[in-house]
Amino acid sequence: MSHKAGFVNIIGNPNVGKSTLMNAFVGEKLSIITSKAQTTRHRILGIVNGEDFQVVLSDTPGIIKPAYELQASMMGFVKSAFEDADILIYMVEIGEQELKDEAFFNKITNSKIPVLLLLNKIDTSDQEQLETQVQLWANKVPNAEIIPISALTGFQVKEVFDRIIELLPESPPFYPKDQLTDKPERFFINETIREKILIHYKKEIPYAVEVDTEEFFEEDHIIRVRSVIMVERETQKGIIIGHKGSALKRVGVEARKDLEKFFGKQIHLELYVKVNKNWRSNQNQLKRFGYNN
Ligand SMILES: Nc1nc2c(ncn2[C@@H]2O[C@H](COP(=O)(O)OP(=O)(O)OP(=O)(O)O)[C@@H](O)[C@H]2O)c(=O)[nH]1
Ligand SMILES: [Mg+2]
């Protein structure tokens, strides 16, 4: 029996719905999703296995002009996603006009591999706007196949997946058939906590935060976790903790609920906050947190 497999890498501007789409394909919440830009900071694999296929999806950070080391590393992940793709998914959202980074945009328009341009969030548009947008992107990226979708409602998501399978090259699988992702358990704990921080704190705070899980003990019926929330400055520490610890407590309660669903087990989650001065601009710290490319 023939077997198909390959890398399908999702790229695009921040906040267009890349992570929502990957989670929809995989059927698990591998990537965190919020209404804020720059939610995703890593390249995260989501693997969909069938008897005669393996689709290795990559969710990537939204494309930005990097202003500090962390963002430069995030763009390194995007770059790597261009290098090993068998199929590129370029996601745009309704109303969007351009990809801000010209070099990346040229890579897309000159791509030798198939490009699926997914016009997302069409649940928020009408027919007329949709037609104008399809025309706009057909002119800008003539080498792409344009498919309007809604990653949120699932509209046309199955059709995109079927098209991916058609386009996939013949190949043996790259990963064991029961593998879902390339990231370890601790990564999903860090990300779930960071999602709650993105949701509950304003302005610069979420962008100054990194989460590191220092302890992870799995017992029969419970997983015991201790994670540190790192901020860049003393003032941010106070804001994260909140009045009598109430803000931090809310993060802990909400993250624990999500993690219990994700792991299917009771979770004991201990959180504390630490200042790690300017970690976003420190190469060694970034390497330690997995931003090494
Ligand atoms: N209305 C609508 N909203 C959507 C759709 N897809 C995603 N969203 C919302 O758009 C926001 C961003 O979604 P994400 O999946 O986090 O976007 P992203 O491209 O991964 O963002 P970054 O990781 O920051 O680059 C969230 O609030 C989603 O719920 C859609 O099809 N329709
Ligand atoms: Mg994302």
Automatic annotation (TrEMBL):
<comment type="similarity">
    <text>Belongs to the TRAFAC class TrmE-Era-EngA-EngB-Septin-like GTPase superfamily. Era GTPase family.</text>
</comment>
<keyword id="KW-0342">GTP-binding</keyword>
<protein>
    <recommendedName>
        <fullName>GTPase Era</fullName>
    </recommendedName>
</protein>
<dbReference type="InterPro" id="IPR009019">
    <property type="entry name" value="KH_sf_prok-type"/>
</dbReference>
<dbReference type="InterPro" id="IPR027417">
    <property type="entry name" value="P-loop_NTPase"/>
</dbReference>
<feature type="region of interest" description="G2">
    <location>
        <begin position="38"/>
        <end position="42"/>
    </location>
</feature>
<dbReference type="Pfam" id="PF07650">
    <property type="entry name" value="KH_2"/>
</dbReference>
<feature type="region of interest" description="G3">
    <location>
        <begin position="59"/>
        <end position="62"/>
    </location>
</feature>
<comment type="function">
    <text>An essential GTPase that binds both GDP and GTP, with rapid nucleotide exchange. Plays a role in 16S rRNA processing and 30S ribosomal subunit biogenesis and possibly also in cell cycle regulation and energy metabolism.</text>
</comment>
<feature type="binding site">
    <location>
        <begin position="120"/>
        <end position="123"/>
    </location>
    <ligand>
        <name>GTP</name>
    </ligand>
</feature>
<dbReference type="InterPro" id="IPR030388">
    <property type="entry name" value="G_ERA_dom"/>
</dbReference>
<keyword id="KW-0963">Cytoplasm</keyword>
<keyword id="KW-0699">rRNA-binding</keyword>
<feature type="domain" description="KH type-2">
    <location>
        <begin position="201"/>
        <end position="277"/>
    </location>
</feature>
<feature type="domain" description="Era-type G">
    <location>
        <begin position="4"/>
        <end position="170"/>
    </location>
</feature>
<keyword id="KW-1003">Cell membrane</keyword>
<dbReference type="InterPro" id="IPR006073">
    <property type="entry name" value="GTP-bd"/>
</dbReference>
<feature type="binding site">
    <location>
        <begin position="12"/>
        <end position="19"/>
    </location>
    <ligand>
        <name>GTP</name>
    </ligand>
</feature>
<comment type="subunit">
    <text>Monomer.</text>
</comment>
<dbReference type="InterPro" id="IPR004044">
    <property type="entry name" value="KH_dom_type_2"/>
</dbReference>
<feature type="region of interest" description="G1">
    <location>
        <begin position="12"/>
        <end position="19"/>
    </location>
</feature>
<feature type="region of interest" description="G4">
    <location>
        <begin position="120"/>
        <end position="123"/>
    </location>
</feature>
<dbReference type="InterPro" id="IPR005225">
    <property type="entry name" value="Small_GTP-bd"/>
</dbReference>
<dbReference type="InterPro" id="IPR005662">
    <property type="entry name" value="GTPase_Era-like"/>
</dbReference>
<keyword id="KW-0694">RNA-binding</keyword>
<feature type="binding site">
    <location>
        <begin position="59"/>
        <end position="63"/>
    </location>
    <ligand>
        <name>GTP</name>
    </ligand>
</feature>
<dbReference type="Pfam" id="PF01926">
    <property type="entry name" value="MMR_HSR1"/>
</dbReference>
<keyword id="KW-0547">Nucleotide-binding</keyword>
<feature type="region of interest" description="G5">
    <location>
        <begin position="149"/>
        <end position="151"/>
    </location>
</feature>
<keyword id="KW-0690">Ribosome biogenesis</keyword>
<dbReference type="InterPro" id="IPR015946">
    <property type="entry name" value="KH_dom-like_a/b"/>
</dbReference>
<keyword id="KW-0472">Membrane</keyword>
